Amino acid sequence: KTHRITLIPGDGIGPEVSGAVVKILEAAGAATGVAFDWHPYDAGANAFEKTGEYIPKVLYDSIEKNRVALKGPVTTPVGGGFASINVTLRKKFELFANFRPVKNLPGLKTKYPGLDLVIVRENMEDLYAGLEHEVVPGVVQALKIITEKGSTRIAKFAFDYARKHGRKKIHAIHKANIMKLSDGLFLRCCQTVAKEFPEIAYHEHIVDNTCMQLVMNPYQYDILLTENLYGDILSDLCSAFVGGLGLVPGANLGTECAIFEAVHGSAPDIAGKDLANPTALLQSAVLMLHHIDEPATAERVQAGLEQVYREGKTLTKDVGGTSGTKAFADAVVAAMEAP
Ligand code: NAI
Ligand code: MG
What we know:
12 strands, oxidoreductase, 11 helices
């Protein structure tokens, strides 16, 4: 079977990690009878240089048609310039759920062996939507919009996921002591949905305390259910438990389309040096393979990846190794093909 997939290589380390992932997926697909028809597009500054648009119409059309995209990180300018490509794509395709499993890879030694938690982040609302304006010179306003619809559907997503995968506990993360109306509405929606899932324990933690609790004992959490901005920040924090940003994958999910991408950004500090760890994007691709109903290919990739970490000989620098992005990718391909 052939799958048409929109590919956004992205900026910085994006082309390196997506190149590695495509190579590994091609090898896994060849062995399991699955072919990929990649449709690659630029987005952001590169796209603007070539087409005069930050997100070319052909890219929108491609995602609309293929319904599945694999995306590398895109650089977003600080303090001005164009709006975030990520935020724009998430809004455009109503990718309301951001699913981020934070799980230890067997074989990789970390401070928290066996940790396995999931961040379910609302993906379209909140301060993260970037709705800002200058009121008068010297005063700006940023709008935090939280809706019953958005909060209820992300809560429903988290509880449905928990039920389907036998997860036991959900913590809604908030600051409703201060943002009584907005985070208050979010919490009320979570509480209402929680009532439909009596078998899943429901708790509420304030976000600043959550940061402390996470660092003290991340094992106490199972699923973290968050608004958009808290989820963004907690994701990077949690990535450190399992080896850092080079590891943690993500899926932006809507009812029509899905975009799979790592938690990390374009990492300009290591770009173009063959230093980036493609594991996070590779694990995002594994989520994608399950999404397009190719579990055998997904399992082959995951097994190869875990084998390379167990052997520990060909790891990238961020996880204590000395190998480059390309050598790591070749090792995963070799591990998949070893008898
Ligand atoms: P970053 O995630 O790019 O990098 C943070 C740190 O983690 C850096 O030290 C980097 O070297 C390291 N790192 C990240 N990914 C790695 C990998 N795969 N392997 C090894 N080390 C890795 O965050 P930063 O520097 O704050 O953002 C850089 C740019 O990325 C910004 O323009 C930001 O807007 C953009 N960004 C884009 C995202 C996306 O497209 N989904 C997500 C997050 C940030
Ligand atoms: Mg982030």
